Amino acid sequence: ISDQKPLGCWSVKHGQILTCPVVCNFETHEYIAVHDDKVLRIWKDEDINLDKAFKATLSADVYRIHSLPQGGPLVLFRGGGVRTLDVLLEAPQQEIENVISGEVIRWSGAFMEGQQPVLIFTTEKDGDFFVYVQKPKLSSLHRYKLEQQESAKPLCFTAHLTNQTVTLLCLYSNDSVYQILIPLQQHTEEEEEEEEILSKSLLLNLSVSETVLKGTSLVVLDKDHVAVLGSLAAPQKEPRECLTIWNTKFQTLQTSKELPLGTSGQLWCYEEKFFLIHGKVLTVILYKCETSSLAAAVGKLKDSQTPDVSLFLNWNTLEDEELVVSFQSQESVALKAESRMSLRSRRSSVAEEQPATVSVGQLLVNLKGASTYVFENELKKLMAKAPTPDLQATIGCVLTALTDRCKRNPKYYPQNFLQQIVETHDLSYSLCPDLMSVALEKKDMPLLQMCLERFPDIPEEVTYTCLKSFLSMSEAHLQTLDVNVDSVICYIDVELDDKEVKTEIVENGFSAEMDQDMCDTKLPKESHFRSDGESCPVGLQKAALLNAVLHSAYTETFLLPHLKNLPAQQAILFLRYLYYLYVKCSEKVNTTLPGVRSPTINQIMDWMCLLLDAQFTVMVMLPEAKELLSNLHKFVRAQVRFYSELNKIEGSLQELQRLNHLRESQTYSIEVLEII
């Protein structure tokens, strides 16, 4: 999520349907999916084609797979039967017993009790609700009936396990949350014969004054807090969707956030992060629960001198007027939202400081009118003394303050300070989105190069803007800039006194002459860019900047529309450089360019294909691109032929390798091997 890039994508065949959520096996680092109810698929990150992944057809329909960090995956079938994945894979067609009859599973969850996995699920039949608790490894199963509630029924469930007791929370249609305690002690046979009815107790009313929350999803945060996603309904007002956090100990609404774009009604919680669909994007919200106290719950603090709880980010994007974000009531639950699928590595941390200590936000506001010297010195001190958990957030505030000052004062631009921050800290684009736009406006190419090489989450539009800017800048101007050329200095051809210094290398089975012979063509000597890629079409500095673009992460779907807008001459120049790199890589046996942060053969090929996809029609129509495309085609064809010939003698080469292993190293001999 922090990189905003898909790390992997797998799809089933047309007509097949994934019928339960995919999970990860924590022990084997494999993914487990079920499609068409009965077909089990297991694969790893490196597997590309899901159709070729491990497949097992089961004898019964699967409802859900639960993966436990130490207990392995548990498979729950629609009939209520449960198997561990290991037992199931030993005999996929084994008969699965039907535990329930005429009932429909509504919810399920899994926990670890010591070394034993515990699975709990709820069912519904004719308006009655039942709870099943299973310990698969002990073949233990208990069935309970849920106490009925007049004029209300359960909408959703969640549970947690504490001290051998399952606490089941039910969100009912009467806007209340009920709690049910289920002990995991061993039952006697007589007790098991009688169906036990579980009584429930009211935990929380989801109403404040005349405002009522119509909940759709419920998660437990800790023993005193729950989060509810739903719609707030007030008299004579339109209902609005909100994420709310409640203190169950003191029956208070702790905090809420309106979600105007609407949600899917589902809320997930994992490792102190909320996940929810807001509009068309995945929103991730960090939260931190503190020890519940009555003073915090009602907003009354014992010590009025206690400083505000200052956070570095509000629910909203950090704006100029939002540098100070404090909760006066010092609420026990602090939240930060970062939408558009961007989740930084920061953690919400509430420090207990002395009353005289000024918060980060307040300090930055106080420094707005300070002189440049005082402003930068105070920012450096702030970064130096920032505690480790808050360092990322502090740096984000510092960068925001610097870029805001640059936008207010066009003459101000602390180039060295900005470069030092980017170079010495592990940052991301989303930490300060304005940084690269300011650098583009100031034409700070060295800083843009650093950002492209270091930031993992740069939007494709910004990457394209950098590429266009690099290609349009003159070589003479670039030579005056302090661009890092470590990625190109070891392989690029340097011209001295208009005479090119070049070493002819024949390592990968071809040379310019061989390439021409294989293609039965003779290229004109006047050609500025010959088929062997002997001349680099750009200078050292521009090549280094283009290499930084090649290193940036991207998603093809989002980058392709922008590349279509690249001016034709710039597209040709970029393709010439990519072709040059491709030839250089092919000269080496290991297809690896020397140097620091040099582009890989895969990056070169991916960008070349992407550029051709975006600009192919333009390239075909332009006369100046005809020779380039022809040379590229001939070179690729020569490479295909060369590797095809290598494939033909692969068996002989393997035999030669085997003979070398058998030969005694101390014995001198001459052998003649005939390759047929």
TrEMBL record:
InterPro entries linked to this entry: NOL11 (IPR042859), Nol11_C (IPR048897), NOL11_N (IPR012584)
The keyword rRNA processing is annotated on this UniProt entry: yes
Molecular function terms from GO: RNA binding
Nucleolar protein 11 C-terminal domain span: 368-674
Alphabetized UniProt keyword annotations: Activator, Nucleus, rRNA processing, Transcription, Transcription regulation
GO cellular component labels: nucleolus
Domain of life: Eukaryota
Identification of the protein by name: NOL11 protein
The species this protein was found in: Brachypodius melanocephalos (black-headed bulbul)
